[in-house]
Amino acid sequence: MPRPVSPTGSVLLEPGIPMCQTDLPLDWYQEEFRPYAEEYLALPDRTPETVLPWLDAYVRPAADHFGDALLLLAHFYMGGEIVKLVERYGGSIADSYALALQAARNPQKRVIVESAVHFMAESIAILAGEDQQVWITNPKAGCTMEMLAKDYMVLPVADQLVERYGDELVCVAYMNTSGRLKALAGRTGGAVCTSSNAHLVVDWARREGKKLFFVPDEHLGRNTAARLGMDLARVVRLAPAEQARGAFPLDDAHVEGGLAALDRAEMILWGSWCGVHTVFTEGHVAWWKERGWRVLVHPESPLEVVEAADGAGSTAYLWKAVEQAPAGSRLVIGTEGHFVRNARELGRRRGVEVVHLADVPEAGLAGAGCGCATMSRNDPPHLAGMLDLLRRGTPPDANRVLAGDAVDEVSGSRERLESAERAEVARQARLALERMIEVVGD
């Protein structure tokens, strides 16, 4: 019997093959989700024959209850088999940009359940209509890059930059930011960007004669500047966010090259990064290219890795590269590990060999690749519990996502803005998102 294939072309769950999902400790679940986790952990194994009937008992009634009003979403990077489970139940898988547009493009969907990270769910909520609700299966699912660019870290520094440069400064906020930082882009006349369109947004801002404050990923910012032929001596990074761990004064000690370099800068980078993509080195790229493989990487990787690779682009670009590669191709992909595992399955069906960039079988280079651990906090019990609780009318308010919400990924605690302030954040963030769409098209 042929294996079932998803709408995106990925192979769906295959009988007898264990599901690649690391079980979370029971005390990691919200109280409302523990009964589902206890049932899941008590299952005899993690094969589809066991998990799917258990999951069906919760998901199918919820799908019948909500009908066409329900939309399930997940990101390409989702760990375990959540991507395949969401597709199994008629949901959609996409990169962060496409996810952000889902509510606006599907106004008939009133209940939107996302299995990914919080900033992605918030982007959906910013563009959602008044009658649409956005829920996340696990509010503790975060992003290391965004965790190093919280609003309490960035906004006081941004205020100093605005005071110093006035209307000359615009913020370009990567999609991997909270709504509060997208709102910063909106009120400074800037825009949101994605990894696939950052060069278009930055080029637009340069043509406006603006000084750019690029938040939060220093590597995507630097790679974008290089792609546009900017003088990298005029691309200046602020203090590394991992060391500062909060707001800091704009002075010679907290600016790469000091205030003189800051004043000369065309682009100012916030010093954050993605731990998944900074494990890659030129040595990884060289090892595979010397053996005849084509190497493609995500632009959140360091500049020297991007320059050494055969190509760089977003998750959609990387997925399409596997879909379109001729049979017999050998592709090395440098991005999140779960994505590469799913791409490997797609490639296997098409006669294309796919490996992870960090899987170099040589001492000193091997074993550095990893998946997004925080995104993988969304697992089958969270999906089953969220849908069942929604059907019962008792969903935990902590899982509801509104514009401006700030969540602590460790404790799960949430700071929610009052309605007037939330509306203003949503308005400014929406401006930044809509400006991106105006610049690059949707």
Summarize the structure.
The chain is of the alpha/beta class. It is built from 19 helices and 15 strands.
Shape: globular
What characterizes the major β-sheet? 5 strands, parallel
> Strands of the largest sheet, in order across it?
6-5-7-9-8
Q: How would you state the average pLDDT, rounded?
A: 88
The residue fraction in helices comes out at 40-55%
Strand content: 5-15%
- Tell me the radius of gyration: 22 Å
Helix-strand makeup class: alpha/beta
**Number of helices, counting only DSSP H or I runs of 4 residues or more:** 19
Termini Cα gap: 39 Å
Any low-confidence stretches, pLDDT <50, length ≥5?
1-21
Could you name the CATH topology of the largest domain?
Rossmann fold
Number of strands: 15
The CATH level-2 architecture of the largest domain is identified as 3-Layer(aba) Sandwich
> What is the fourth-level CATH superfamily of the largest domain?
NadA-like
Q: Mind telling me the CATH class of the largest domain?
A: Alpha Beta
| Count of spatially separate domains | 3
Tags for this model:
Rossmann fold; 15 strands; alpha/beta; disordered N terminus; 3 domains; 442 residues; four-stranded parallel β-sheet
